[in-house]
Design goal:
By secondary structure, the chain is α/β, with parallel strands linked by helices. The chain has one domain (3-219): LmbE-like (Rossmann fold, 3-Layer(aba) Sandwich). 38% of the residues lie in helices and 18% in strands. It has six helices and seven strands. The chain has helices at residues 13-27, 49-66, 85-98, 113-130, 171-178, 192-206; strands at 3-10, 31-38, 70-76, 102-105, 146-150, 163-166, 212-216. The chain has a seven-stranded mixed β-sheet with strand order 3-2-1-4-5-7-6, sandwiched between helices. The longest helix has 18 residues, at 49-66. 45% of the residues are buried. The structure holds zinc ion. Residues 9-10, 13, 40, 112, 115 line the site of zinc ion (ZN).
Length: 229
């Protein structure tokens, strides 16, 4: 069975940016996993981090159910996500257990340091998981993972979409998963749904469909070898 793993800095990041794409993969028979590096528990001005973290975890579990995905929660703190080998090892161990073909990550050009750190530690984890000489609980290496960078309103510095996924047929179900989160229903003040549904429509127009999610790739993956033009 093919497997896709999305690694988000905060619960909600990957559901908002790539949730429809994940659901498409689930529909196509892929195993789908969401790794939440932090809960994003400091994001509510009225609730203490402990209370809001518990709420975000419940919301993440409900959203994952709607996306036919399995959520994984790592114990890092919102706003304090480290880009170090200990965190990368924790992600690499999960990657070796799951053996995904595709990993969705944050783009590095971000206004949020957790997102930039998530980019670096996800790439480091993919590297460590692939190299057999890193001993990660004696798990077999996970090779050939393809990394795609999701389009996040906070990560647009230098972001260039390259691969588009037509999500028109799962758009309505994605909206339901999105709105499992209070912030997805606009309760946090920022109109997340308005931004993401509008961006998804724009990406759809760009490829001649109704709705699409776009992903960036590393420069070297844009190389194409053709015999004639
Ligand atoms: Zn975030």
């Amino acid at each position: 069975m093919s497997c896709i793993v999305a690694v988000g800095a905060h619960a909600a990041d990957m559901e908002f940016t790539a949730g429809a794409t994940l659901l498409k993969h689930a529909r196509a028979g892929w195993a789908v996993h969401l790794i939440h590096l932090t809960l994003g528990e400091k994001g509510n001005p009225r609730l203490a981090p402990e209370a809001y973290g518990a709420q975000k975890k419940r919301e993440a579990e409900e959203a994952a159910r709607k996306l036919n995905a399995t959520p994984h929660f790592l114990p890092y703190l919102d706003g304090e996500l480290p880009a170090n080998d200990e965190a990368a090892r924790a992600v690499a161990i999960l990657l070796r257990r799951l053996q995904p073909q595709v990993v969705i990550a944050h783009w590095h050009g971000s206004i949020h340091t957790d997102h930039t750190n998530a980019y670096h530690l996800t790439r480091r984890a993919v590297f460590m998981a692939a190299i057999p000489h890193f001993n990660l609980e004696d798990l077999p290496p996970a090779r050939g993972m393809r990394i795609y960078y999701a389009e996040n309103w906070e990560d647009l510095d230098g972001y260039r979409p390259y691969v588009y996924v037509d999500v028109s047929d799962v758009f309505a179900e994605w909206e339901q998963a999105f709105k499992c989160y209070a912030i997805g229903r606009g309760e946090g003040g920022f109109p997340y749904w308005d931004w993401y549904q509008a961006r998804t429509r724009i990406r759809g127009i760009e490829i001649g469909t109704t709705y699409a999610q776009a992903f960036a790739v590393d420069e070297w993956r844009m190389r194409q070898r053709w015999d004639t033009l």
